[in-house]
Amino acid sequence: MTPVATPFFFYLLSGLAIAGGLLVITRRNAIHSALALIVTLLAIAGLYLMLYAPFVAGVQIIVYAGGIMVLFLFVIMLVSLERTAKERQFNRMWPVGLLAGCSLLALFMSVYAKGKGLFVERGPQLPESENTQQIGIMLYGEAGRMGQYTFAFEIASLLLLVAILGAVIMAKKRI
Amino acid sequence: MLSAKCQVLRLMVPVTTIHYLVVAAALFVLGVIGVLTRRNVVIVLMSIELILNAVNLNLVAFSRMWGGLHGQVFSIFVVVDAAAEAAVGLGILIAFFRNNETINVDEIDLLKW
After folding, report:
1. Closest residue in A to B38 (Cα–Cα)
2. Which fold has domain B2-106?
3. Do A44 and B53 touch (CB under 8 A)?
4. Which top CATH class is A1-86?
């Protein structure tokens, strides 16, 4: 299958995503971190589009960039202090954390370099136009029958209900 | 010199699964470093979101590699989990901030022995 987008877009989007991630963990102001995280999320949505996953890209933009990030921004406004922006941003053990992260990256890279031949595309590719429909069939089922993931979908709705109750009870002034 | 350049270009031009895996690994490591080093709880939670996004990217890339949709469906479930985690985590953060007037990880040590 000939790709729709050129490799240039891949490098642009992945560069944006990684630059955004770097800004998230280095900025002093939490609002700036949140905005950088939004850039990262949108770039990852573009990468999903390049991977022929338009439904996941839409979910990423609507739920992540539109929902979760607004929640984060509200909480930053509720809890932000002048004091926290002025004091030290990294804890005392930050060289250890940096070392652990870099060694984790080296581990990943060595695994990928050794197993490069394993990651080749195989299997027939589904047409992109049916992507959303097929995901819907897997989640909800078709013609009265349960889909493969219908039960997991119901459990996920239960999880969300519990999370809503937990968040409301946690944020209430007096229980 | 020229041949080395050509080799690099040949490695770069067709974007395969491994390229996405490398990007996801970089994002994952950035998230891990953020969780381990930052003192602001809100930014620690954002780093967790970065980690979950890296996992999602891996899932979708593998789903593309195998030609199925299971990875994409699973990544939607991961998004559901991320939303639940963010809501509960931020609720706990607000409750804690109301009592202790701090959002530094170093100062949240009530359960530390």
Report:
1. A90
2. Helix Hairpins (1.10.287)
3. yes
4. mainly alpha
